[in-house]
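To: structure desk
From: M.T.
Subject: fold request, one chain
Message: Could you run this one when you get a chance? Sequence is below, nothing fancy, just the single chain.
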Amino acid sequence: MLIRALLAAVHYLALALGLGSVFARGVRLRQLRLAPQDSEALAAVLRADAGWGVAALLWIATGVPRVLAGLDRASAFYLRNGFFYTKMGLFAVVVALELLPMVTFIRWRKIRGRGADPVAGSPLPTLIRLNDLEVAIVVIIPFVAALMARGAWLF
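Reply: Done. Structure tokens follow.
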């Protein structure tokens, strides 16, 4: 019972960490668009991005055992529920949207480590739009999860 509670709590706390991080990343990306040489805004983008990555790892590390080990409900409950697949589909969309930002921020970290300006020539407007879409989807996911958890069926 303790393991179930801990996994559930960490899964939910990852939502707070993830939503806060991706939202903060968007705010700081907008600051960076206005002042590309702002080293504090750049550092804040990279910190928020790290928090976003930790949240994603926590979601996976806690979600997979909750589904496959049948800790809260039998695996069949999830695997035959359309809202579960909707939730996973939305998560997959977030992961796909995150590919460009992830590669960009890894590149920025390397360039910054060499003392050069990583922001010059970066697609900041695209990164901001992708970030905004990710925020919106992360806000929708708990509503889908609540429907799933209460036994609603999509198909």
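Reply (cont.): The mean pLDDT is 95. Let me know if you need anything else for the meeting.
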